[in-house]
Structure formats: C-alpha cells, structure tokens
C-alpha cells in the first residue's frame, strides 16, 4: 500500500526544511537506501534516504520550496496505485505507517529471536549507533578498520557523521571484523547493520544478507510486504522515465572525483566541468558552495567591446535554514532581553610588552584574544552577577566559568566553549581556542563543545574593526565585544605621546545586571588587561 513520507526532522532545532534537490522523479523506482532528496535544514544540507521500496507516486514539495516538519513530502507505493484519497486528505495511510514505525529498542536477543538464521557462536552484530539525542540516521565518513582486521575493545571502528558532527565510534567488542554493512559515504538509519565482528574465519554471509531494519525494528529476516489492490491511475499522474547510468566523474589527472549530488546537478545545469572545481568539503569533496562560487579561468579580455554602464542589476539568494535559525535566535534575544551597552578604552602598552615577552618562551604562543578570555574568566569569578543566566522563573548565578568564543564559519556563526577558563593557564586557553576554532571551521564540533557557556567573547579586532556591539548569546547575561588595537596620540602625564589602545563594549541584560554592576566588572577587567602580569599571580 502507499506510504506517506513526511518532511523529516534532521536536527534538534529544525522546524522546517527546504528541498534543495530531488534525486528521484515521479515514476522512478525507489529501493530501500536510495537517496530521495537533499534537504536544507537550519544547520546543513543533508541527504534524505528512503527506508521504503516502491514507485515514487507523488512529490509534495518542489525544489526550492519550504515546508514544516511532518508535512507531506512524497508518496511511495505500487506502480499505478490510486492515491487520490491521500492527496485529498481522506486516507489514513500515514497514520498506519506511523503505527507500524513505532520505534522499539534493538538488542541482539531480539534480532536472534526473529531470525531464520541463528547467529554463529561468538558473532556480534554491530548496528548504527545513536550518537546524539536527535540522530535518526548516520553516514560512515571513514572506516578505521577493514574486513579481516583484529578489533580490540576500545578501538575506533569508524568515524560516523551525524546530524550535528562527525564523531568517532568505538568498538565495545573484541574479535575480527568479518563484514562491513556500509561503505564510506553511505548512510543508514539508526540500528541498521553497520558491521559484524566475531571469530576469524566465521562465515557470516547468511547473517549479513538476512539482516534488515523493518519500521525501526531490527530483524534478521525479510519483512513480508502487504499486498494492496492496484488501481490504474491517470496517465498524467505518473511519468515513466528511464534513468541513464551515470559514470563517476574524474579529475584532471584521471582519478576519482568526489562531489555531492547537488553539486553535480548544479554543475550540469551551469555547464561547469567539475574537474576544474576545487572542492572545500571533507577530503576535497566538491559541495554546492564550490560550484556556485566557481569562476572559470580567464581566456583573455576582448578588445574594443562596448560594455553598457549604469544598468541596474541584483541577485536574490534564498535564506538558508541556518541563517533563518540565527535570525530567529538573535531576534528573540534582542527583543526579549533589555540590552544596554557599556563602552571602555584600555591602554594596551603593558599588554603588548607582556605578550611579546611571554611568546619569547620556546614553543609558546598566545594571542591578545587568549589574554582577554583569561582576564574575563578571572573577573567573572569576582562578579558572579555578570556570570549569571536569566530564566523565566529564576536567575542562576554560576560558580563555574565557561567562556564561549564566537567563531565565524562560512554558513554562519558558532560559539564553542572553553570550560573552566579561570582555572586554565594562558597557553592552555590558547591551545583550546585554536583547537575549537579549527573544529568549527571543519564542522567537527560536537554538541558538548558548544553547550554550557556562562559568558561570551566576540572579537572582530583581527578584522580591523575598531569598535562594535554584539547581541547577547542567551541565556547568558552579557557578551563582550573586542575591537582592534590601534596606534594613536594619547595624553600621559600631561604630554601627548604615541600610545596603543583597545576599545571594548559590554552588552548587558538589564534584568540581571545593573549598570553599576557592569561598570565594576569592567574596572576589574581593566586591571587584568592593563597589568596582565596580575593574571599570573
């Protein structure tokens, strides 16, 4: 019978999704595991895999269109099946599907009880793990072991890409890797067959071939398909198309070229040769961004060609789901928290000399931002009101200090967190910030590394910005904006001399931080920044 496919929730904050590309057309055959479409969420563009087999009978959301989670996305069923009642809202197939798909806990015992083929002695079936609270499927980014390798308990089997990050998956069993159920780059639902481990030489072909995930329940036998009466649909409803087998793209040196399906589709539409495009994805994979921003090499300017001027022109770019999520969060913060700003300018002469002397130590290098993070952490311990968080029914005064450091990435802004920053040395803070920023730019941050901040630092000084204000990262009560160190005339002891200063702006939530409290925090911060040796005491 026909199965209703709804817009999936591919991230914990996703409320709606945009169809970036359909990989199947109405009338196409769909196998379990086929990629139906690429869905743009608030965090990334992700491949959406079919967990059903049949014919794609209807597409409810066209490419570029957006709909809310759990709204109709597509219908899959038998070729020619009448789906009029489903489209008119009279059917209850979607309810039946939800009832059948009620998730059950998978255990090896359940798999064995439902199996026609018993597991050989010592053989363990490893399924796709749930590595985050919102994870529904995972992609094997890299295998760290190959078939035939010995696996010890605690060894890293593979790197699994979830809806939030790429994470290492550790083996909890010892034995020999006998079978790999997913190749690198392939995706499957949580609890699907990932690998089989057991004694060397054990034949597990029957186990692998009969292992299925049926409606969320792991079984080692094929689920019986329900037959439904076939009703011939109008010809306009189903278009039969024959898919042409595509050859894998190759690079200029003849090697395999890796590109996402959406990147290939856009390249084909624009007539771009992918072998000329430099990939920015993992392992050099070409993604949508690379194709859309590809500029072909110039073949020389034409001589004497008239180019009209004064012509109005513009490009319209649809808001990405991540950009929508950022806009929603910042709008909520700006209009729910009564912001006010305290602006200061610090003398940086001692800080410059301190950093130069500190970095003269072999294998040691700290930045001005590391010094600001450390100074904030120490000052926050003395002013817990600034280290507070506002909730609807209470105010939380944090005794620990977790400093969030804003990092710009191509898709938006993320805030990894330096935990217990007040207890860490300057080199430790520098190493932590460098590692977290690198993970952020490579989309390797784990959810735990982005949670729990009690205060945030945003530094645009490295981009030459002299001063700016920021929006509070809720539920925190304050965020510090750090500008560039500038050289300018200053007055010292009645004389005008050349000096170096830095402007900072503290955005405060007036519900938790009064003006005098914020000013006192900045006075303490000034003492640490202008006399950085006091941070070592």
Automatic annotation (TrEMBL):
Enzyme kind, highest EC tier: transferase
Assigned EC number: 2.3.1.-
Domain Peripheral subunit-binding (PSBD): from-to ranges: 258-295
Entry keyword Transferase: yes
Basic and acidic residues biased stretches: 219-238
Compositional bias ranges of the Polar residues kind: 240-254
Needed co-factor(s): (R)-lipoate
Domain Lipoyl-binding: start-end pairs: 2-77, 123-198
Domain of life per record: Bacteria
InterPro entries xref list: 2-oxoA_DH_lipoyl-BS (IPR003016), 2-oxoacid_DH_actylTfrase (IPR001078), Biotin_lipoyl (IPR000089), CAT-like_dom_sf (IPR023213), E2/Pdx1 (IPR045257), E3-bd_dom_sf (IPR036625), PSBD (IPR004167), Single_hybrid_motif (IPR011053)
Similarity field: Belongs to the 2-oxoacid dehydrogenase family.
Protein name: Dihydrolipoamide acetyltransferase component of pyruvate dehydrogenase complex
Organism the protein comes from: Flavivirga algicola
